[in-house]
Amino acid sequence: MRYGQAPEVLRDIDLRLTPGSFHFLTGASGAGKSSLLKLIYIAAKPSGGHLRIFDHDILTTPRTELPFLRRRIGVVFQEFHLLDHLTAFDNVALPLRIVGQKLEQYQSDVIELLDWVGLGERLWAYPPTLSGGEKQRLSIARAVVTKPDILLADEPTGNVDHAMALRILRLLVELNRMGTTVVIASHDQDLVARSGMPVLHLEHGRLSTQPAAAPRQFPDDFDTFPQTGIL
Amino acid sequence: MTAVEDRGPDPAASILPAQDGRDLGLVFTVAVLSFLACIAVIAALAADRAAQGWARQLSDSATIQVRPLGGETGPEAAARAAEAVAGVKGVAEARAMDRKSAEALLEPWLGKGNIPADLPLPQLVTVDLTPDHPASVADLNRALAAAHVSAAVDDHSRWMADVRTSGNVVRLSAAIACLLIATAAGSVVAFATRQGLAARRDVVEVLHLCGAEDQFVARLFQMRFAALATRASAYGALAAAAVGAILRLTGGTDGFSPALPIAWTDLLACLAAPALGAVVAALSARSVAMAILREQV
Domain for residue A10, yes or no? Predict the structure, then answer.
């Protein structure tokens, strides 16, 4: 993959994500992590090769069908990409409004989900009034509200402290346990090592895979995250 | 809980950010265009009414110029001609024009009191025709020939053609003006839509990532600019109606002037401006937004 006439940022990528899997995506800055995620959430197209998502060849799929594939993919950004003029509730409800749901259909789900990510008291707060950790959890809630098959997170712990990073990871692990395929791009080697999850490592645009290792040193309460009925 | 948090869900929460200062210029421009369009339509309606009135007056009358024969005087010949055509079917009334009336017709060109008493004036007969079945020039000529009156009949058809042409020109001019104004409004909205999409690239990106189709995104801009154009067009229409009302009030029974007899009903044309403005803006915004969105992945 390349942007315009620039050198290739990704090359010889051979990746198949198994449904329900959990991967970290690591690599130095500029290694191509964000570009690989962009390919998966269909914000960019490869300049060569094949890209199949949900059994659709993205290079030949009509543009009008791509939104329906994107609805099956949740994305969490380091910079959140929240809409500052909408409340936390309306930010999370946005993907549901896009698919045509009415307030009475999504109200209780959105409130429960915000409660699940720890923002039950901040339903009507606007993003500029939220802390970094709250924004990230809000971003996660928006990404999963449509119960996506794949959740992609680009440096989701980049703007939060270690305790919040663990809390966010715990959320993502919980989502994975509910069946969502999760890929997390992260610089946080400690977090990656603690999780024991398989790692996709990018270096100079090439991908290598490291198998899962035994998780270590998570806090005692890491596995006690409450269940939610809406996911 | 803070004051900001003290609210409930808003199913109509605008996905696009609220309007900002950049919209003021667009509101002003569309309002001015709406004002000009309404003024053009009001003027066209009034001018058309004047033209129709003049054409009706001309078509309902004819003028006979009498040439006295032998020892007959002009007034005698005119009186005989009036008598001859008065009985023709399709003639309501025929009157020989006296010298005083003929001089009054010349006064606008020669000035009051500047017409010498011995200046020979044409002997004219004015004929009022029945509107439903007016007598033709041939009917009048036959009656005059039968009465042995030498005369030329003018049914004003040459002037009527000019008046009708003028009316058509006014109507066409107003239509072209409105079309140009609508095109200008559409172009302004198209430009604003481009700016809006560029300024709200972050919102559009989030919407796409959340699975929004192009139509959904385009509809947001379409609705925004349609609402803005409705408001702006209403301002312009209101101003135009106010100007029209002032002209009507100051013009007295003539409307504004005999050439522009504004009627109160003409002002009703302004009611259409907000809806037309909304349609133009919606079409323009949607087509531009769709074109730009199609260029993205």
Answer: no
Distances (CA, A) of B30 to A114, B16, B24, B26, B286: 43, 21, 10, 6, 17
Give the domain range for residue A120. Answer: 22-223
Per the structure, the count of domains in chain A is 1
**A160 falls within a domain:** yes
**B161-196 exposure pattern, b = at least 16 Cβ within 10 A, e = fewer:** eebbebbeebeeebeebbeebbebbbebbbebbbeb
Does A230 contact chain B (CB < 8 Å)? no
Tokens 């040439």 locate to: B67
- B295 at A interface, C-beta within 8 A: no
* Beta carbons of A184 and A11 less than 8 angstroms apart: no
Q: For residue A40, is it within any domain?
A: yes
Question: What's the CATH number where A99 sits?
Answer: 3.40.50.300
In one letter, which amino acid is B212? A
Is the complex ipTM higher than 0.90? Answer: no
In this structure, is residue A5 part of a structural domain?
no
Question: Could you read off the pLDDT tens digit of each residue along chain A, which spans 231 residues?
Answer: 777 777 777 888 888 999 999 999 998 888 888 889 999 999 988 888 889 999 999 999 999 999 999 999 999 988 889 999 999 999 999 999 999 999 999 999 999 999 988 899 999 999 999 998 899 999 999 999 998 999 999 988 877 777 778 878 888 888 898 889 999 998 888 888 877 888 999 988 888 887 766 665 555 555 555 556 565
Name the DSSP letter for residue B260.
Answer: B
Out of A67, A87, A107, closest to residue B211 by CB: A67
Within 108-137 of B, beta carbons closer than 8 Å to A belong to none
Burial class (CB in 10 A: 0-12, 13-18, 19+), B100: exposed
Residue from the list B7, B207, B216 with its beta carbon closest to the beta carbon of A124: B7
The sign of the torsion formed by the CA atoms of A215, A217, A218, A223 equals positive
